[in-house]
């Protein structure tokens, strides 16, 4: 059995699971860097029976799956992966399994970005190293309004921290009811009101055809000129051009972004030149604790599949 682990950017996969448990005679290959264009990906992966992939780092559309004749098992970290065509896998008889996760690290990163923006931590840290002292005024969060686009597990965790800071927390999502919001101690408002009245907007929705572009030019245009915008969910939820234009023109106070349309971020990305931003390289789920669960469960998935009793199966909706 030939097994490949993809996109191990931090070179930790071999040390976070006991791969010696693979059946005798198995061969394990670990790819650290992205494999590149689709032709290069297909060529590199063609020999493998089993692939372990990291979330949405390498997409697996039908066109690629059709070029992997030996593939029998695809394991993705996490419980879902929108970059895998599950219908194409099912048509080819390829088993797809997921893994568990631990905690809510993305909620923690969202607060890291909010605080970095509100307290101007990156800018003041750079200024200090350059010999300057207290170059600007920062902002208080207490008494301000936090608007959450999405109030699932992550959004609720972000809400609790905002409440601890004394913020007025409101939320909106396509399916959110006033009753569900009240359970989290949050007021449900309409989408336009959320963007028009919030001092901080943080996005916590799952990307789907229904939510793609849910934050568009109208929503961004309604924001206060001092408001902060944070996205730790998925780039496809937001109109990138509208957000970039608002930042360039100073029509919003700043943005903290962890997710991008193309990842890793290209050297010519527009984001690298935008003012009033704090950027992180999709770190929301990248914690030692999460990775330990990812790779441990991935190995368990392989062994269970090999034994004829696959677990954590993912199938087309």
TrEMBL record:
Q: Which residues form a coiled coil?
A: none
Span of domain D-isomer specific 2-hydroxyacid dehydrogenase catalytic? 27-311
* Keyword check for NAD: yes
Q: Which UniProt keywords apply?
A: NAD, Oxidoreductase
Query: What are the residue boundaries of the D-isomer specific 2-hydroxyacid dehydrogenase NAD-binding domain, all occurrences included?
Result: 112-284
Q: Check the record and name the Pfam families matching this protein.
A: 2-Hacid_dh (PF00389), 2-Hacid_dh_C (PF02826)
Q: Does the keyword Oxidoreductase apply?
A: yes
Task: Name the InterPro entries for this protein.
Answer: D-2-hydroxyacid_DH (IPR050857), D-isomer_2_OHA_DH_cat_dom (IPR006139), D-isomer_DH_NAD-bd (IPR006140), NAD(P)-bd_dom_sf (IPR036291)
Family indicated by similarity: Belongs to the D-isomer specific 2-hydroxyacid dehydrogenase family.
Protein name per UniProt: Phosphoglycerate dehydrogenase-like enzyme
- Origin organism of this chain? Azospirillum picis
Starting at the broadest rank, the lineage of the source organism is: Bacteria, Pseudomonadati, Pseudomonadota, Alphaproteobacteria, Rhodospirillales
């Amino acid at each position: 059995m030939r097994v490949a682990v993809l996109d191990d950017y931090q070179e930790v996969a071999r040390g976070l699971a006991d791969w010696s448990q693979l059946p005798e005679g198995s061969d394990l290959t670990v790819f650290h860097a992205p494999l590149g264009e689709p032709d290069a990906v297909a060529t590199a992966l063609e020999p493998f029976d089993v692939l372990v992939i990291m979330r949405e780092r390498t997409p697996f559309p039908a066109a690629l799956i059709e070029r992997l004749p030996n593939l029998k098992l695809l394991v993705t970290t996490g419980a879902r992966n929108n970059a895998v065509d599950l219908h194409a896998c099912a048509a080819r008889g390829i088993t797809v399994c997921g893994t568990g996760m631990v905690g809510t690290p993305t909620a923690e990163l969202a607060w890291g970005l909010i605080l970095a923006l509100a307290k101007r931590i990156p800018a003041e840290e750079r200024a200090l190293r350059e010999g300057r002292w207290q170059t600007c005024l920062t902002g208080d969060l207490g008494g301000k309004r936090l608007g959450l686009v999405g109030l699932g597990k992550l959004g609720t965790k972000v809400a609790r921290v905002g409440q601890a800071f004394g913020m007025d927390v409101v939320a909106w999502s396509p399916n959110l009811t006033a009753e569900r919001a009240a359970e989290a101690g949050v007021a449900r408002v309409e989408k336009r009101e959320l963007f028009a009245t919030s001092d901080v907007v943080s996005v916590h929705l799952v990307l789907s055809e229904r939510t793609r572009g849910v934050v568009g030019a109208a929503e961004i245009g309604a924001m206060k000129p001092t408001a902060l915008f944070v996205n730790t969910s998925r780039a496809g939820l937001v109109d990138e051009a509208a957000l970039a234009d608002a930042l360039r023109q100073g029509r919003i106070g700043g943005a903290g972004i962890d997710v991008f349309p193309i990842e890793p971020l290209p050297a010519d990305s527009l984001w690298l030149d935008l003012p009033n931003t704090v950027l992180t390289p999709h770190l929301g789920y990248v914690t030692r604790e999460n990775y330990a669960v990812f790779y441990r469960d991935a190995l368990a998935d392989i062994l269970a599949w090999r034994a004829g009793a696959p677990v954590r199966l993912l199938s087309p909706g």
